[in-house]
């Protein structure tokens, strides 16, 4: 067990698309007294963050749907003070990566030196991070105002930025909420994104898009 008194409560999110790796690391880390949750890629990891923030994130870099590089940069932008360790077998960044940019430490997968990893975890969790952690987090507002623009096919549509994965997307379907706000689902990470459209609040998407598109007749005026 750990010599750090509070480490039994410290929670680590371990992200890797390799199920065997997740199993082994969950075992190693929980034996060290950490509370471990795992995710199979960046999208699953974002869903895990919606359930609650960990004290530290360890993430593989090469993963489907959302790579660790994107996931860690989203984490760095949304939660600047959350310590992160990048793990990879595909890249060897140990000599060349810039500390603090994407992650606070790098652990090469093939190295198989859990003691060193545990040391790094404790150092990052219990000592001040050697980088600024107080800059303003990138956090889109809880309820956004949809922007109008052209989607990839050149069709007028409503554009939003996902509050979870920070990817921009055009609205494909929309429904109203009790408060009169509209909401839709991020096509990348399935997060629910609430928004308002100043043109025709509460109208069906076809009318909203029609209203947003210059030169088109309004289907209905609210
Ligand atoms: Zn998203």
Put the structure in a nutshell:
With 222 residues, the chain is α/β, with parallel strands linked by helices.
Question: How large is the share of residues in beta strands?
Answer: 15-25%
Q: Are any ligands bound, and if so which?
A: zinc ion
Structural class: alpha/beta
The order of strands across the largest sheet is 2-1-3-4-5
Order of helices and strands: EHEHEHEEHEEEEEEEH
Mean pLDDT: 81
How is the main sheet built? 5 strands, parallel
CA distance, first residue to last residue: 63 Å
Rg from C-alpha positions? 21 Å
Please report the total strand number as a whole number. 12
What do you see in this structure?
The protein is an alpha/beta fold and 222 residues long. The protein has 5 helices and 12 strands. It has helices spanning 19-31, 42-51, 68-78, 114-126, 205-212; strands at 11-15, 35-39, 56-60, 84-88, 105-108, 143-145, 147-150, 156-161, 168-170, 175-176, 182-185, 192-196. The longest helix has 13 residues, at 19-31. Bound molecules: zinc ion (ZN).
